[in-house]
Design a protein that fits this description.
Elements (H helix, E strand, L loop, with lengths): L12 H47 L4 H6 L11 H42 L5 H12 L7 H10 L6 H25 L3 H9 L4 H12 L1 H16 L3 H6 L13 H12 L5 H35 L1
Helix pairs in contact: 1-12, 3-6, 3-9, 3-11, 3-12, 4-6, 6-9, 7-8, 9-12, 11-12
Length: 307
């Protein structure tokens, strides 16, 4: 008796598997092409950002003769004299004024913005959405439209040409974005931790500052970076609100105004190394803050996911 063994019927799985492999290979090739394009675009973008900054920094160590002969060459003799000349021209005073305004404005923006975003995100009350959308609408309002009424309003409060008035204006224009950014962040925080704080006897204020604020540290640092960058580079508002009066010194002005004054004061006898040194002094603190806090943002986000 012969036993017939039947071969398993051939199905369409083999051609399908082959076509699936081909699709995967094609997707892999397309992914490599996309990666090459994206990495090339990012490299080009990085070059466009880094090269002008490097050119300015190197120009601060040159002389007028070296810049006139070849503005793109490496400094033949490294000299720090341009930094001392820029500092003596008033950059030091402008720098101190900017730091003073930033300490007041960034602190007020972060504290008030975090409190407003926390209340709007965690508490339900009548008019909650109206207040929230009011902040959102404020973020879309351009500062150019408010310059004239803003000038008269600040003047009526006798805060024109004062650091407090400028800091208050910085705070008011930075609050909408801060509230909008932190609102979504506070809304995603775990409710169990918030409720456990009240069970342990925390008040609303203590729960906010001691429980919710530490958890929201990544979001606070992120929006803080945006506020520091935006307020440090602000030029239009100081020009309108920190006007120089006749016979007054320019010591009350901020750094962006100081760089323009330094450029205008050169006249035909331009001291380009001093101007580049002033720009370098203005850039280095912002770059240091941005790079250092970016690492903390990544570490905070990783810690938040592990929790």
């Amino acid at each position: 008796m012969t036993i017939k063994t039947e071969e398993p019927p051939r199905t369409a799985a083999q051609p399908g598997a082959k076509s699936s492999t081909e699709r995967q290979r094609r997707f892999a090739e397309e992914g490599r092409v996309l990666n090459v394009f994206s990495h090339g675009f990012l490299a080009l973008w990085a070059f466009m950002i880094v090269f002008p900054l490097l050119w300015v920094v190197l120009g601060a160590f040159k002389t007028n003769t070296q810049i006139g002969e070849s503005a793109w060459s490496w400094p033949s003799h490294w000299s720090f004299g341009a930094f001392s000349r820029a500092w003596s021209e008033g950059i030091g005073g402008y720098f101190a004024n900017t730091l003073l305004v930033m300490v007041m404005s960034v602190t007020a923006t972060m504290v008030l913005g975090a409190m407003a975003a926390y209340v709007l995100a965690r508490y339900r009350f009548r008019g909650n959405r109206i207040v929230y959308y009011g902040f959102v609408a404020g973020a879309m309002f351009p500062v150019y439209l408010a310059l004239v009424p803003l000038f008269f309003q600040v003047n009526d409060f006798h805060l024109l040409n004062s650091y407090v008035g400028l800091a208050l204006v910085y705070t008011s224009f930075s609050l909408p974005f801060t509230v909008f950014f932190l609102h979504s962040f506070f809304a995603t925080l775990p409710t169990a931790v918030h409720e456990a704080a009240f069970v342990d006897g925390c008040s609303h204020t203590r729960a906010f500052f001691q429980v919710m604020m530490p958890i929201a540290k990544p979001g606070l640092i992120s929006v803080g970076i945006f506020n520091v960058l935006g307020q440090w580079n602000q030029y239009l508002l100081p020009v309108v609100l920190m006007q120089q009066q006749r016979g007054d010194s320019e010591a009350h002005q901020v750094l962006t105004q100081g760089l323009v004054n330094l450029m205008a004061a050169q006249g035909y006898a331009a001291d380009f190394p001093a101007l580049f040194a002033g720009m370098t002094i203005a850039m280095l603190p912002v770059l240091a803050v941005y790079l250092s806090f970016q690492r903390q943002v990544q570490a905070g986000l990783t810690a938040g996911t592990l929790k």
